[in-house]
Amino acid sequence: MKKSRKILISLATTGLICAVAVSANAGPRGGADTNGDGNVTRAEMMASVSKKFAKMDVNKDGKLNKADRKARRDARFAKMDSNNDGGLSPAELKAAKVKRAQERFARMDTDGNGLLSKEEMRKKRGGKHKMRGRGRGGRGQGAMRMMKRADTNGDMAVSLQEMRTAATARFNKVDTNNDGVLTKEERQAARKKHREQRKMRHKNRRG
Fold it and tell me: Which letter does DSSP use for residue 182 in this model?
């Protein structure tokens, strides 16, 4: 049971589903809103799910499971092992750290001018704040519940169809007026409701 739990959490924390319909980013820089109009259609959501699944299905066997987790880990190691000697030297670890910092900077530098403005730094701090409380017992448990719901046949793997079905259920739940489009307001309302429910669960656990 513990082994199964670890597999589920590992897959979930990589971003599987991750409330695709709820937290879709606005704009062409990422997320399901590919045309940047601030809304997410059902077609955009499905395209986003398929793209995410293809990226996560490292061994291309049509399902997400423990094998993909190992393949991603091996790929990360190989990428860091620049001289292909099967080991990581201090220099290689430092280089990998610098590269991650550069990539993180590039994501934060939304206007691409090579400098971080006060507004860009503010957004970064806001992002960190939003992540608080999502560690053990928070995001991990919520994501695990989502994974369990997605794995409808109980084979400890998630197929593309299962992923689409789970994402569609999330979409329908957030699409309160049933028009097939998620507006910014609907997504914000869903996130607010989710935060309130999470706080209530945490309060109940503390008793």
Answer: E
Q: What is the mean pLDDT of residues 64-77?
A: 84
Report d(CA 29, CA 122) in Å as an integer: 19
Exposed, middle or buried: residue 159 (CB in 10 Å: 0-12, 13-18, 19+)? buried
All structural domains of the chain with their residue ranges: 2-206
Helix intervals (H) in the chain: 2-13, 20-23, 42-56, 66-80, 90-108, 118-131, 139-150, 160-174, 184-206
Query: Scanning the structure block, which residue is given the tokens 């940047």?
Result: 36
Give the pLDDT confidence score for residue 172 in this predicted structure: 92
Whether the CB-CB separation of 77 and 86 falls below 8 Å is answered with no
Which of the pair, 75 or 13, is modelled with greater confidence? 75
Torsion of CA 156, 160, 161, 166, to 10 degrees: 70
- Looking at residue 141, what is its pLDDT? 54
Contacts of 207 (CB under 8 A, 6+ apart): none
pLDDT-derived band at 26 (thresholds 50, 70, 90) equals very low
Q: What are phi and psi of 40, to 5 degrees?
A: -125, 115
pLDDT of res. 34:
85
Q: Which of 13, 4, 14, 16 is nearest to 138 (CA)?
A: 13
